[in-house]
Structures are given as structure tokens and as C-alpha cells.
Amino acid sequence: MAIKTLISEEELNLKVKELGEKITDHYKDKTDEIVALCVLKGSINFYSDLVKRIDMNVLYNFIQVSSYSGTNTTGRIKVKSWVEESLEGKHVIIVEDVVDTGNTLKYIIKYLERQNPASIEIASIVVKNVHPHGINVKFPGFDIGDYFIIGYGLDYDEKYRNLPYIGYIE
Ligand SMILES: O=P(O)(O)OC[C@H]1O[C@H](OP(=O)(O)OP(=O)(O)O)[C@H](O)[C@@H]1O
Ligand code: HPA
């Protein structure tokens, strides 16, 4: 079993910087509060790098949901923890590591909308299928093909999250 690099640490750093600049530019005239919402566990590394590249005040918030077993979605989203503070009138940036089938985001957005945020946008370091479930990823990182990826927060059965790059198992 060999791990092949798909996106290097250097490529990740450059992309995160670029996304941070785009996000800063997009929200620069907004007066309402901006919340960066980390979708645990997979987004932890991207989130931590991205918020440092956003040149304005962002509030931190975290949720934990999961639906994968091995390389397949179970199709059932398990909510392990959810947003505690009110999102009413706030601009929410959902920070994801990967948008794959789009099931997870479809679920999250449906429930977040009930809290009447001012807006909801998505930043994802990797997008696998363009517009799954019609989901529009406003701040996409890398578009990739049909790889099951690991590293930079992404796991295979909870392993490999701490690789500093994104790879796949050959
Ligand atoms: O677009 P989808 O097909 O729904 O897949 C994307 C989601 O799957 C992964 O989470 P996972 O359920 O593996 O939990 P984890 O973040 O704790 O690893 C990943 O972190 C995304 O949240
Ligand atoms: O390619 C992937 N890797 C790890 N977790 C995932 N969750 C959805 N797709 C993936």
C-alpha cells in the first residue's frame, strides 16, 4: 500500500492564501458579523489555516457531523454537535474539507437556514463533483476526479488526518 501525493503542502498553502484573499474581498463591505463555521472533524486543518488568511474579524463556530464508513457514504448524517450561538443576521461561511456527494452540505444548509442568517456561503479546499445537489461552492479550492483522498484533515477510517498534504492510497 503506497500513499501518493495529489496536492502538495506548498500547493495547499498557496490556495489557502488565495481563498483567504477572495473571502476578504467578498465580505469587505459587510457590516453584519461574519461567522466561519468549521465542519469537524475533516475541516480542522483547512479551517485553522484559512481563518488566519481572512483579513477581517471572523467569529469561530464548530459543528461535528459524520456520514462516512470507509470510502463510502452511509447516506445518514450523524450530528455529534451543533451550533450553540444564534446565527440570526450573521454571514456564515461553512468551511469544508471536501464536497463529494453533497449530502452533508445539503443537510447542514437546510438546518442552518432555519436560523435566519444574513447569508450562507461555502469554502471547501476540495470539490469532487461540480454542483452536487445543486450546491454552489462559492470559494472552491481544487477540483479533483474520482479519488478517495486522505490527509490535511481527511481520513480513511479515522487514519491519515495528520498528513500535511492531500494524497490517495494506491
Ligand atoms: O459530500 P459528502 O459526500 O457528504 O462528503 C463530504 C463530507 O464527508 C466527510 O465527513 P465524514 O462524514 O467522513 O466525517 P469527518 O469529517 O469526521 O471525517 C467530509 O469531511 C465532509 O464533511
Ligand atoms: O475522498 C474523501 N476522503 C475522505 N473523506 C471523504 N468524505 C467524502 N469524500 C471523502
UniProtKB/TrEMBL annotation:
This protein's name: Hypoxanthine phosphoribosyltransferase
The protein's Enzyme Commission number: 2.4.2.8
Main location: cytoplasm
GO CC annotations, alphabetized: cytosol
Annotated compartments: Cytoplasm
Keywords noted in UniProt: Cytoplasm, Glycosyltransferase, Magnesium, Metal-binding, Nucleotide-binding, Purine salvage, Transferase
Similarity-based family: Belongs to the purine/pyrimidine phosphoribosyltransferase family.
Pfam family of the protein (one): Pribosyltran
Keyword check for Nucleotide-binding: yes
Ranges for domain Phosphoribosyltransferase: 14-156
Transmembrane segments: none
Lineage: superkingdom: Bacteria
Keyword Transit peptide: no
Alphabetized GO MF terms: hypoxanthine phosphoribosyltransferase activity; magnesium ion binding; nucleotide binding
Catalytic reactions on record: IMP + diphosphate = hypoxanthine + 5-phospho-alpha-D-ribose 1-diphosphate; GMP + diphosphate = guanine + 5-phospho-alpha-D-ribose 1-diphosphate
Gene Ontology BP term (one): IMP salvage
Pathway: Purine metabolism; IMP biosynthesis via salvage pathway; IMP from hypoxanthine: step 1/1
Species lineage: Bacteria, Thermotogati, Thermotogota, Thermotogae, Petrotogales
InterPro entries: HGPRT, Hxn_phspho_trans, PRTase-like, PRTase_dom
Cofactor: Mg(2+)
